[in-house]
Amino acid sequence: MNAKRLLIVDDEAEFGEFVRRVAVDIGYEVMVTTNGLDFQKGFASFQPNKIILDMVIPDIDGNELLLWLLEQGYASDLIITTGFSPDYARDAKILAEFKGLPSVSILVKPVRLAQLRGALGA
To answer: Which SMART domains does the entry mention (predicted)?
Structure first.
């Protein structure tokens, strides 16, 4: 199993594919999901050490999904994305840090290649 595993949840399939291509190019194994249920199903089996979490997806609120992740014991890197108000992402970042996640960053869409690569640690 690859040491760099990225799990993405974003209802914009085009954005998920963009992130996947960039991440694979820098050595990640990647799983892309477009809804909360598929994300939750894939989480345990994929065992990611980095997650990209879109705050606004149709079936579950980003904060609810964040709290679910924390209940599962997730304690690795989190990148919060949003195409809506950056305040929403900042609030989620504060919540994640308050709950103990060590590394939380925010990307506001549209995301530039250099920003994404930097957030992924390239």
So the answer is: REC (SM00448)
